[in-house]
Write a structure and sequence with these properties.
Blueprint (H helix, E strand, L loop, with lengths): L3 E3 L15 E4 L20 E4 L15 E6 L6 H7 L1 H7 L2 E6 L3 H10 L6 E4 L2 H10 L9 H10 L2 H6 L1 E2 L2 E2 L2 E7 L2 E4 L1 H7 L7 H13 L17 H14 L2 H8 L8 H14 L35 E2 L21 E4 L8 E12 L4 H10 L2 H9 L21 H11 L3 E5 L1 H4 L2 H16 L4 H11 L5
Parallel strand pairs: 4-5, 4-6, 13-14
Antiparallel strand pairs: 1-3, 2-3, 6-13, 7-8, 9-13, 10-11, 10-12
Helix pairs in contact: 1-13, 4-16, 5-12, 9-11, 16-17
């Protein structure tokens, strides 16, 4: 069974499924689509023929619909939608995509109201645990075919993140490497600055920038109902660098309290940047402006030379204004957030997980597609501007669009990297997507480290 979708002149639905993507010229006499230019006798455009053999395992699902609810919005939304085209064309399923900046707050409301989507992309394993505990009759385990894909294409830890009490619910979607600092290579070169190799080097560089009459850092944590989350990433990166991975694991699992002295120290170390009015918030205001500056815009002062450094994940590559070149010799690039540790290279990571609230055949088929190497390669090819990677080991790095994406994938797959999943995403939802987020805002607007960490510890659910 082959279906053809016209994507416009020269546009190709790129697939990693070994799809036979054949551009066919359409003559005026043979094309009834009404495309402009067919009366000239020349090529009217290009169609993409998709070999649907890899999808035959799903059967004929013509006329069915799968609804998706997610926090992934523009500019990333369109590349998600484009990556579903082969699945839709070959199975007959229509995928209805809804991206929302209020996802975290609204998903639980919708589940409680009996209006859950077919599939939700959960950015926090802690949220998955909360849903399983609070709405066990709403969420459904992943099908066997999805489980088999995860066993084949992902390391064991990823399956554990998508499981609760031994039941596998949610396969990883995209992955993030969060331990990056964005900067302007040209500005550094013109000023004679070197990319720092240790945390102390980075603090010394920050002071040098101040001494040279500028402010080094810019930051922002505003994100609608999810305001605060970029600040939690900063803290987590510092915990990995000051306390180390073992303490990080104990913190996440609550073997040590949230206000443990080692965590307080990490907050204070991060505060040397984030609460230092000589270091931050370049071009945006005082320290308290971090709480109200949209995370999407916070790095922009680098482009006009107002700011020198901005800590943000690999996916921040998609947030730069159109026309910004992300490259080692471009307008902006990023370096690994350094550490004083000499024996390990800690990396903070993250991902979305595909959870289902219905077990209809079309829903299970779409889950399986999203967990495959086929989809990972298709998604890479339908993201021509870059800013996306996956931990799926079936992803061919050559399909990634940019040098920076390849760098991110290299870090995620580097056996020397010590990768830990985003702590707030692993913590119980009321903490990780609740008091930790609000605590960051309070911390940035005047509350002390001890006050904030004590309040978050007090909010930790007794059973967790």
């Amino acid at each position: 069974m082959t279906r053809i979708r016209r994507r416009g002149t020269g546009a190709v639905v790129a697939g990693g499924l070994g799809l036979a993507l054949v551009l066919t010229a359409c003559s005026g006499g043979g094309d009834d689509t009404g495309d402009e230019g067919t009366d000239s006798g020349g090529d009217a455009g290009a169609s993409t023929e998709i070999d649907c053999a890899p999808y035959e395992e799903f059967g004929d699902l013509e006329g069915t619909t799968v609804s998706i609810y997610t926090s992934i919005v523009e500019p990333e939304q369109q590349t998600q939608v484009d990556s579903y085209v082969p699945f839709e064309e070959c199975t007959g399923v229509t995928v209805e995509y809804e991206g929302s900046r209020e996802f975290e707050a609204q998903l639980l409301v919708r589940i409680q109201a009996g209006n859950a989507p077919d599939i939700a992309y959960l950015p926090q394993p802690g949220l998955l645990k909360t849903i399983v505990q609070d709405f066990p009759d709403a969420i459904v385990p992943a099908p066997e075919a999805t489980s088999a894909n995860v066993d084949e294409f992902f390391t064991e830890g990823w399956k554990e993140y998508g499981s609760v009490d031994g039941t596998f619910y949610a396969a990883p979607l995209g992955a993030n490497a969060k331990s990056f600092v964005w900067y302007s290579p040209a500005m550094f070169e013109d000023a004679g600055y070197e990319v720092p190799e240790t945390w102390d080097d980075m603090i010394d560089l920050s002071q040098q920038i101040v001494d040279d009459g500028a402010m080094p850092w810019c930051a922002g944590v505003e994100s609608g109902d999810a305001t605060g989350w970029p600040g939690t990433d900063f803290i987590e990166d510092v915990v990995l660098r000051t306390a180390g991975p073992e303490v990080y694991d104990q913190w996440v699992s609550h073997e040590i309290p949230f206000n443990d002295p080692q965590i307080v120290e990490a907050f204070d170390t991060a505060g040397e940047i984030l609460k230092n009015d000589e270091f931050v918030n370049a071009g945006l205001g005082g320290v308290d402006s971090i709480a109200t500056t949209p995370w999407t815009d916070a790095g922009f002062p680098i482009l006009d030379g107002t700011c020198w450094m901005h800590r943000a994940a690999n996916f921040y590559a998609t947030q730069w204004p159109e026309g910004t070149e992300v490259a080692p010799d471009g307008d902006v690039y990023a370096f690994y957030l350094p550490t004083n540790q000499t024996d390990i290279k800690p990396v903070l990571g993250g991902a979305e997980f595909v959870a289902a609230f219905d077990d209809r055949p079309e829903v299970q088929a779409f889950q399986t597609y999203l967990s495959s190497a086929d989809w990972a390669n298709t998604k890479a090819k339908t993201t021509p501007m870059g800013g996306w990677v996956s931990a799926n080991n079936g992803l061919d790095p050559e399909n990634l669009a940019t040098d920076f994406d390849k760098l991110s994938a290299e870090i995620l797959s580097d056996p020397e990297s010590v990768i830990r999943f985003d702590a707030s995403d692993l913590m119980p939802g009321e903490v990780g997507a609740g008091t930790f987020w609000t605590g960051i805002v309070n911390w940035l607007t005047g509350s002390s480290t001890q006050e904030v960490t004590d309040q978050i510890e007090a909010s930790w659910p007794a059973a967790s």
